[in-house]
Amino acid sequence: MEISIVIADDHHVVRRGLVFFLHTQKDIKVIGEAANGKEAIELAQSLKPDIILMDLVMPVMDGIEATKLIKQELPEIKILMLTSFSDQDHVIPALEAGASGYQLKDIQPDDLVQCIKNIMKGENQLHPKATSHLLASLSNKSRQGPNPLDSLTKRELEVLREIARGKSNKEIAGDLFITEKTVKTHVSNLLAKLELADRTQAALFAVRNSLVD
């Protein structure tokens, strides 16, 4: 199945390089380019791509604000942050805004393609530097109030842990000896109970609550 992509980056050379490379991939099609966050939103609304490669720092509107607004209106669109920044002041707001992945611009081209495909499968794709900042930040946050985990069943907790390990529904089904359809049901239930938007937020929640090593 062909994956449709919009590239949002204020550097023309970067956009052209990404377009040129991605056009060589038979199962990927670049359908639009944006030079800032405002244009990214407009293209998301008009073209409804499968995924947007979003830069963080852009004029008019940055990538974080654009991501937040796109996910509010069009939650089915996946967004991969592709940036030069790996500090926690950029990583955490981007993921909280709804990004499905966070990679640095020095990523190898073939790895970028695989990352795009993995995100479309519902898997988490975080650069190791971004992950280390994220974990350090989350470990310093204290939990307050009643524990929302108490609302989950034992099986839903198991599925949540597997999501945090980056596993697909098919992999989770195999590991827990249940059907893929059952996994999808558990995922939907736990997202609803925890009031989370997607698998990436579920993975962050699991890490924040120390459900994974």
What's the quaternary structure here? Answer: single chain
Number of strands: 6
Unreliable residue runs:
none
Shape summary = globular
Termini separation:
35 Å
> Considering DSSP H and I runs of 4 or more, what fraction of the residues is helical?
40-55%
CA-atom Rg in angstroms: 17 Å
Structural class: alpha/beta
DSSP helix count?
A: 10
Beta-strand share of residues: 5-15%
Largest sheet: 6 strands, parallel
If strands are numbered along the chain, what order do they take across the biggest sheet?
2-1-3-4-5-6
Q: Please trace the helix and strand order, writing H or E for each element.
A: EHEHEHEHEHEHHHHH
Determine the mean pLDDT. 88
Distinctive features:
213 residues, six-stranded parallel β-sheet
Tell me the layout of helices and strands.
Elements: E1 3-8, H1 12-22, E2 28-34, H2 37-47, E3 51-54, H3 63-73, E4 78-83, H4 88-97, E5 101-104, H5 109-120, E6 125-126, H6 128-139, H7 154-164, H8 169-176, H9 180-194, H10 199-208
Parallel strand pairs: 1-2, 1-3, 3-4, 4-5, 5-6
Helix pairs in contact: 2-3, 3-4, 7-9, 7-10, 8-9
What does this molecule look like?
By secondary structure, this protein is an alpha/beta fold. 52% of the residues lie in helices and 14% in strands. The protein has 10 helices and 6 strands. The chain has helices spanning 12-22, 37-47, 63-73, 88-97, 109-120, 128-139, 154-164, 169-176, 180-194, 199-208; strands spanning 3-8, 28-34, 51-54, 78-83, 101-104, 125-126. Helix 3 packs parallel to helix 4 (88-97), helix 7 crosses helix 10 and helix 8 crosses helix 9. The model has no long low-confidence stretch (mean pLDDT 88).
